[in-house]
Design a protein that fits this description.
By secondary structure, the protein is of the alpha/beta class. Helices cover 34% and strands 19% of the residues.
Length: 148
């Protein structure tokens, strides 16, 4: 029996999310996301300032300057998260992501988890964790699988 040398679908889309993260303008953590249905990529996103606004690399990081720990007070960040940008991209172009899979370089935060739940995403595959226990609890309660 011949072994297929290609990456699994999960590895393939996680690698794409990793490449997407290379466009991030965040000074603290580069995150990438890809939304997929039936092995077809529908939208991607990376973390950074809203379009047309100055990036953190240009104006600095408020959270870093104020010593805010990772995983806390995300609302003080001028940037959007990768998951948010991917969901917004799909909405902007009228693409339904109900029952989609989300591939992300990091576990979503609780704010993103709520958006993921309401967008209809059914499964999340992550490359690494994130210190937000509430996000894990919300996703678990909603019946959304998170796989590492």
């Amino acid at each position: 029996m011949k072994v297929d040398p290609r990456p699994s679908w999960d590895d393939y889309f996680l690698k794409i999310a990793g490449l997407v993260s290379s466009r991030s303008t965040c000074l603290r953590r580069q995150v990438g996301a890809a939304i997929v249905i039936e092995k077809r990529m529908l939208a991607t996103g990376y973390n950074g300032a809203p379009q047309g606004l100055s990036h953190c690399a240009e104006v600095g990081c408020k959270r870093e300057n104020e010593g805010i720990p990772r995983g806390e007070r995300q609302e003080l960040c001028r940037g959007l998260h990768a998951e948010q940008n991917a969901i917004i991209q799909a909405a902007l172009y009228g693409i339904s992501i109900r029952s989609a899979f989300l591939y992300c370089t990091h576990q979503p935060c609780s704010i993103c988890a709520k958006m993921i739940i309401n967008s209809g995403i059914k499964r999340i595959v992550i490359a690494s964790g994130y210190p937000d226990k509430m996000a894990q609890e919300l996703l678990c309660e909603a019946g959304i699988q998170i796989e590492k």
